[in-house]
Design a protein that fits this description.
Length: 177
């Protein structure tokens, strides 16, 4: 299976107070760099959605900016389909880890997300047109509405715990490696 990795990085970081993707981790590298490095071993290629990042393939949210994570996912799904990938593995720019167990739990039949971390997801590329249609309709554009529409699996795994980074002080408690 050809798998594209997509880092969803188009958010406003309103709770964080500054550009979360560019926040420095304890090791001095930016949070988005950790997200890219974490997902890269599990996929054939990585794209960043919602912002330009030098040295990486960057995709503008589709069909327009400020559509939340679904705009980035839509861009990634269309890119994946056009480039011959079977599916997209997504992570948020604020997810500095992506354990192999997570990828194994998500990959499978149909779309899936990790309970409590809906940006950690697996999305068949064939959903591109369906997401276009969803975003063209009048709805809240919440990820929950999209998950319900497509009947996505919600993966519950007590052994997979991802850091939840919403405020600058959440970074301070993370390990330096």
């Amino acid at each position: 299976m050809r798998l594209l990795g997509a880092v969803l990085a188009g958010g406003r970081s309103s709770r964080f107070g500054s550009d979360k993707a560019m926040a420095l981790m304890p090791d001095g590298r930016m949070l988005i760099d950790h997200a890219v490095a974490a997902i890269a071993p599990h996929v054939e290629a990585v794209v960043v959605c919602g912002r330009a990042v030098e040295g990486l393939t960057s995709l503008s949210d589709r069909p327009a900016p400020d559509m939340g994570p679904l705009g980035g996912l839509n861009a990634a799904l269309h890119y994946a389909r056009d480039e011959g990938y079977d599916a997209v593995l997504t992570t948020g720019c604020d997810m500095p880890v992506c354990p192999k167990a997570l990828v194994e739990a998500l990959a499978g039949e149909g779309a899936a997300v990790l309970k409590g971390q809906q940006l950690a997801g697996f999305w068949p590329a064939g959903l591109a047109d369906e997401l276009d249609a969803h975003l063209a309709e009048e709805n809240s554009r919440s990820i929950y509405g999209w998950l319900e529409r497509i009947g996505a699996r919600i993966v519950k795994r007590a052994d997979i715990v991802l850091p939840n980074i919403n405020r600058p002080q959440d970074i301070a408690g993370l390990p330096k490696n």
